[in-house]
Amino acid sequence: MAAPVKSTVDTPTSSVQNLTIGKALNLGLRRAMEADDKVIVMGEDVGKLGGVFRITDGLQKDFGEHRVLDTPLAESGIIGTAVGLAVRGYRPVCEIQFEGFIFPGFDQISSQVAKLHYRTQGKVKVPIVIRVPFGGGIGAVEHHSESPESLFSHIAGLKVVSCSNPVDAYWMIQQAISADDPVLFFEPKRLYHSGALKAPVETAATPDPLFASRVLRRGDAATLVAYGPSVKVCLDAATAAEEEGRSLEVIDLRTLSPLDLEPVFESVRRTGRLITVSEASAESSLTSEIAARVQQECFYSLEAPVLRVTGFDTPYPPSKLEEHFLPDLDRVLHAVDRALDW
Amino acid sequence: MAAPVKSTVDTPTSSVQNLTIGKALNLGLRRAMEADDKVIVMGEDVGKLGGVFRITDGLQKDFGEHRVLDTPLAESGIIGTAVGLAVRGYRPVCEIQFEGFIFPGFDQISSQVAKLHYRTQGKVKVPIVIRVPFGGGIGAVEHHSESPESLFSHIAGLKVVSCSNPVDAYWMIQQAISADDPVLFFEPKRLYHSGALKAPVETAATPDPLFASRVLRRGDAATLVAYGPSVKVCLDAATAAEEEGRSLEVIDLRTLSPLDLEPVFESVRRTGRLITVSEASAESSLTSEIAARVQQECFYSLEAPVLRVTGFDTPYPPSKLEEHFLPDLDRVLHAVDRALDW
Amino acid sequence: MPSPEQWTRPEPGAGPAATAAEPTPEQVIAGLRATTEGGAELTQLLTPEGERVSSAMFDPYVADIDAEALRGLYRDMVLVRRADREANAMQRQGQLGIWVPLLGQEAAQVGSGRALKPRDMAFPSYREHGVAYTRGVDFRELLGIFRCTDHGGWDFQQHRFHPYTIVIGNQVLNAAGYAMGQKFDGKVGGADADETAEATICYFGDGATSQGDVHEGFVWAAVYDAPLVFFCQNNQWAISEPTERQSRLPLYQRARGYGFPGIRVDGNDVLGCLAVTRWALEECRHGNGPVLIEAFTYRMDAHTTTDDPTRYRLSDELEVWKHKDPIERVRVHLARTGSADQEFFDEVQAEADRFAAELRDYCFNMPEPPPERVFANVYAEPSPVLEAQREEYLSYLAGFGAGEH
Amino acid sequence: MPSPEQWTRPEPGAGPAATAAEPTPEQVIAGLRATTEGGAELTQLLTPEGERVSSAMFDPYVADIDAEALRGLYRDMVLVRRADREANAMQRQGQLGIWVPLLGQEAAQVGSGRALKPRDMAFPSYREHGVAYTRGVDFRELLGIFRCTDHGGWDFQQHRFHPYTIVIGNQVLNAAGYAMGQKFDGKVGGADADETAEATICYFGDGATSQGDVHEGFVWAAVYDAPLVFFCQNNQWAISEPTERQSRLPLYQRARGYGFPGIRVDGNDVLGCLAVTRWALEECRHGNGPVLIEAFTYRMDAHTTTDDPTRYRLSDELEVWKHKDPIERVRVHLARTGSADQEFFDEVQAEADRFAAELRDYCFNMPEPPPERVFANVYAEPSPVLEAQREEYLSYLAGFGAGEH
Ligand SMILES: Cc1ncc(C[n+]2csc(CCOP(=O)(O)OP(=O)(O)O)c2C)c(N)n1
Ligand SMILES: Cc1ncc(C[n+]2csc(CCOP(=O)(O)OP(=O)(O)O)c2C)c(N)n1
Ligand SMILES: [Mg+2]
Ligand SMILES: [Mg+2]
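Structure tokens for the assembled complex are given below, as produced in the milestone run.
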């Protein structure tokens, strides 16, 4: 096995770095690999190329080919061998190149990754992280802009999270890797390299827990709940609403399974109105689940039904049309209007 | 191609036959194969054996090996070649042996079956039926008792239906086969051979449309909505409730995607209370979707939140424990109590 | 029909090589023959008549199998068969939900299982009760799966015997990953490989070879030089489908396309299976893996207790295979060579009966799992949503007990 | 290292055949060599120097390719390359969202595409613009995918050219099913097979060979004797991964394990590709399918316009392959044999420029799809739920236009 590795990326004297989501993920992966030499990264083109989004950039150079594996081109193989490596004591971090290509690996995820721990009454742990760049808005061809996270949230035995900003990206990836459960880690690909989202990451801080949602902005007129790339849309909507004199509360779910809805319940009890936002199609999705649970928990607090702003129940359209498919500031505000006028 | 085939099973002089769900499906398949020689049946053990549940019993003998294919053991292969056969003009009916084995075929279903029509702007049709015996209660080992239908209802481009009785089984399978869209056809396996459910199937009747839900029983205290094997549970619950003087409305969804919720809305407007029942885990499921839509459409009619009685958010347990996992009459009635006491 | 070697480079010719629209008769016959006989390439050390055949290559791998060791293998097979039959009977009596019989495959399982060193790892499918036994898994620990009280209960690390895998093919990739881990851990090759190196064995059936996962397992193991023995028990049937529904060629030849060795062994010959598997494991431990073994055998019973094989196969076939019984040939050999007397055989039988009686006793007294078990161990780190579901259900149950309805 | 044939039956020996824990140097070198040269088994009719090599087996398949026909193939390749370069440039100018260049693969695509009869069917991956061209698909019809205005717009039945498939490997199973349909329709074999029989060709890359779907396609086609030509363009790279990340052996040898022919052809030799594909299609039409062809070629440009190959490969490699250019060797051959003069080459160039200009013109003037298109053709028979979503969104849009916000 490789000897402990000293990263070539020096931690700067200050523990604060100004990072994009992409760079924060890269640094988080690096830290996790330094901390535990059982952590290995595997996937298509994650080595020399550093992944098509460069999230694994430089890792193979520094940690070697046995810890950063350019695998054969087959997703079931990636996940299925990761399971075996996990049984052997490794902590594999698998990269799926685009969310649209997770489906060949679906069987291993639902039949093995999700069930081994249960099947063995806890005797076999499956500490695998499956990183999935997801979502649209990048002007891509088919299969490169989807949001399949709801499927995994329906499968018991998996944990599912999504980050929306560099600080979370840095911490959540490390927390996911050190978690003993399998974690599907959904990354908002169109924000990877967003300069606007660059943020100071205090690497010496104590992070929030992984499986907790977070109120990002306080408000009282209505509550917006989102995750991943839609968080920014909601924050922008809240800013715009403020100019019109409406204060909207914004909650970043962060954990999609298990859902941490306590902060949402608490918020809805105050605002009486909830809009859930996601790029995924609506039917049998996370937004359905949130609506179902909130209408039950906050039955007497709701002054309007929970409204959903989502991708439509169509396949992802050709990307020249994606602006129509993707929830945007206007559709969110329109839903707020509807909720307030109910 | 085979010449038109005269079935060896003679239609009895009377057009009414008393059938189980399993026999009704078998007869429906037979009728569909007689009506259109492009209809072919394919899957594991569907030939000589007639399928592990005998739903395709006798078909290979009567229609030949080119129309009833014992395929190699690989679900992606079954679905993937069915797509090619459909492009060639065939109407393949694929049998998945147990719902737990649909996952190796998930990629072909979500990437090709669901999207080819959209991708080609309607130029390529995919009239495939994927038959899936589903649900628990048969005392089976792992992977043989699951309810994955919600996953497919989340994927746009698929249609999803489920039958709950012999009459529907007979008609719906034929309608699904003649539909030009891909249909996931979920069959309540534990009821296949239920003598109690045997019913007269009037083969000369005009059937209800495929994509329509149906009110099975009128009532005014609360509405129960279910599909597949849970319909019987709800009907039994309604019978029991009646003895206690409560009249429950029972709706069989029949179509899971697209959902036909108009009858549900109409019912909830009268009863003010809805309980959705399904063996599937709750999170991001069809029951979530129904709750989400009903709370929106019937916001002012609901006198209690929509309640859900479902399998838990766990993998399917060892079947000695399945009575705890599966919604039963008592859990349904308990939910009715809660709704009425809200 | 050209040989497969020729197929990789067609012979010169002026036009299309043949004109048949249907598979050629030769093709069909070759396929059929391949599935009913072992073919010329079958490795065999002990014939169905109990005669020891010598093999320059494989004899060294069973040089240590003296009369005592062979009696041990005999005993293993008799015990395993007896337990299998007992479990089958218990299913008929409603004590088990289902049973997956291994009848006929005792030699393939005991031979390959006994080839493993304690530090090697095994990934079974769902029929490998004989392998489980060789790994020290108590037969009783297997029963939970089939009585449906659990999904698998033994200690996987201690026995180095992975959980049963029901979804066909999945375990092949899992095994490939595990074997990669052995390699990454430096447990392959080296000067003292015979003492310290590890290998993995993975079991799957003839039908499984069609699954994408099995292919990907071949690709991965080949590309990463994983110390992995693919052990395919070709029992001629995948439920109702004969092997020619899965392949044109004998299955061991599948390895050709990946660049690692493939070999066919008489799966009813416990010595042959032991030798070939030992050889394959050594190749793997020394860094020459992976290796594919096709153990040519026969499923003598139904696919499972829910299956009715009379619907799809002739009893003639069964009769033919009875003559190749894996246990009988060892008995004959032991007797003929004077390595065992009737007393020994009687003793083993008596032991097997005791073994079965204990199994039965255990089975009849197995406790029902408590309802909490539904919710247990879904996650290593608890999920609040699930905890709430559990609390709600358990208190509902309690109230229910208290006569709420 | 033993040859693959030996691997199916190991040689006698007293112990493990080797002791290395790492892949043997030979293994590594064999892998590398296999990916940088064609190897001894490469079929070639036209050398990189433009010399015609004779082949007893394959010459008959190009007996009709006279000077005029060869000029036609030259023209095809020049046009296809010119259009490819134009599209690449348009992507750089922001007119296309992405482009998937075929540079270097013109011979593999034009040669194989021209081997098809109109009634044959082709299943492309996403890089087969050259094949599309030979199927009569207007290059402009391809642009929608890359301009992201549609997911594929041509008439698939008329051109007998299936939609592009992006999910690696999926189309191989779809093609196998289609070819099974041809067989079930009685379109394989028969006395007048040359006139009436049909075959299918399916394109995929070297990287794709690892996918389970490709394996299952091999299994299905073999078991159903499907008239299917598997055409693997081994362009040496799957994005940043060289072929040895996918296989130990040359890819055409994969066919060995399934019992059908596998052959490697110089993918930069349009005559060779034409001849071998014609041969393979005829085999299929006569009932001897499937057949695997590995066209040994090179991806001269980036994987797509979003890719930066300097991160993972040396330019030396590119330089070596430049000498094997598929178009240049035909030009040299035509000139040397007096089959074409400068005027012809100039004319083709001019035609290619016009072709590119039209393409550019078309691209710049492509209309934006209307928002309704998001909702169109999800189903053949409408879904009320979706109709409601559409109505709601369109009326929202209309209100929005009317200045609701
Ligand atoms: C993915 C998947 N599909 C279908 C099944 C149902 N099934 C269980 S065993 C079996 C046949 C397996 O045959 P083979 O691989 O030859 O193993 P054997 O049972 O003969 O040992 C099938 C189809 C399954 N378990 N998993
Ligand atoms: C299932 C799947 N996984 C990953 C990808 C992303 N991807 C697109 S092309 C490609 C490499 C394909 O290589 P190869 O098969 O050699 O074809 P080439 O691009 O070289 O023509 C990858 C990994 C994909 N499209 N589909
Ligand atoms: Mg078998
Ligand atoms: Mg390639």
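The first helix of chain A runs from residue 21 to 35. Residues 1-5 of chain A have pLDDT under 50 and may be disordered. Further analysis is deferred to the final report.
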